[in-house]
């Protein structure tokens, strides 16, 4: 089980896919069925399709400019160009954006909040491309 602490906020993430059980460092604590507070938002990136192998959990408020230097949930350094599947829970009116290059540049991939856990088991042509992540409020899409 995993909870990620960022400052005074601890984000616990739900395991919603049976395949994630093959990644012991990614077993997760349940979250509410719907989040409305952005401080409960999270994104979990997986090294392989189908939510397996290494993962990197990114709670709201953490902006990774360069995945080369981040540590995945198992403590290993580097997650650049690794993401092949992901899941997230972000409230309506917010999104996380993956970028193909460091420094939040080039080819954005938008993870638009619905409040519920969303899963993308195969990123297709975007697999092994993500290099940075940022959080954004979506104008006009507030609750």
Please render the helix and strand layout as text.
Layout: E1 3-6, E2 9-12, E3 42-48, E4 52-59, E5 85-89, E6 94-99, E7 109-112, E8 117-120, E9 132-137
Antiparallel strand pairs: 1-2, 3-4, 3-5, 5-8, 6-7, 6-9
Largest sheet properties = 4 strands, antiparallel
Structural class: mainly beta
Sequence stretches where pLDDT stays below 50 over 5 or more residues: 1-22
Strand-residue proportion: 25-35%
Overall geometry? globular
Helix/strand order, N-terminal first: EEEEEEEEE
Distance between the termini: 31 Å
Report mean pLDDT, rounded to a whole number.
82
How many alpha or pi helices? 0
Query: Rounded to an integer, what's the Rg over CA atoms?
Result: 14 Å
The helicity comes to under 10%
Number of strands: 9
* Oligomeric state of the chains present here: single chain
How would you describe this structure to a colleague?
With 143 residues, this protein is mainly β. It contains no helices and nine strands. The model is unreliable at 1-22 (pLDDT under 50).
Short description:
The protein has 143 residues and is mostly beta strands.
